[in-house]
Amino acid sequence: KYTITRFIYLSSIYPILRCCTKYSSLPFPVLRLKDFTRQDATMTCNIEAVIFTTVKNRQICANPDDLWVQNAILHIHKVDTL
């Protein structure tokens, strides 16, 4: 089963900061991904991550070092340029 993103939400007032706290344990099918953002490791967000948005607007945290993640990013860039 896929792990949907585990976020912690941190905010005193604004803006709300979301942080991935762990990675999905399985690769996600690239055809079900539509977008992504990157999370840098900071004092607040302690891991680097790629946050994918699925076609159903769910978010999945992924390890940027995993080959499937790098291939998914390339696929999304390719689709965006068509």
Number of domains: 1
Q: Given the structure, what is the number of helices? A: 1
- The CATH topology is given as OB fold (Dihydrolipoamide Acetyltransferase, E2P)
CATH architecture: Beta Barrel
N-to-C SSE string, H for helix and E for strand: EEEEEH
Poorly predicted tracts of residues: none
Shape: globular
Rg estimate, integer Å: 13 Å
**Structural class, from secondary structure content?**
alpha+beta
- The share of residues in helices is 10-25%
GO biological process, one term: immune response
Pfam families: IL8
GO molecular function: chemokine activity
Keywords: Cytokine
Q: How do you describe this structure in short?
A:
By secondary structure, the chain is α+β, with helices and mostly antiparallel strands.
Care to describe what's here?
The protein has one helix at 67-80, and strands at residues 7-10, 17-20, 33-39, 49-54, 59-62. The chain is of the alpha+beta class. The chain has one domain: OB fold (Dihydrolipoamide Acetyltransferase, E2P) (Beta Barrel). It has a three-stranded antiparallel β-sheet with strand order 3-4-5, with helices on one face. One of its GO terms (cellular component) is extracellular space. Residues 16-76 form the Chemokine interleukin-8-like domain. This is Chemokine interleukin-8-like domain-containing protein.
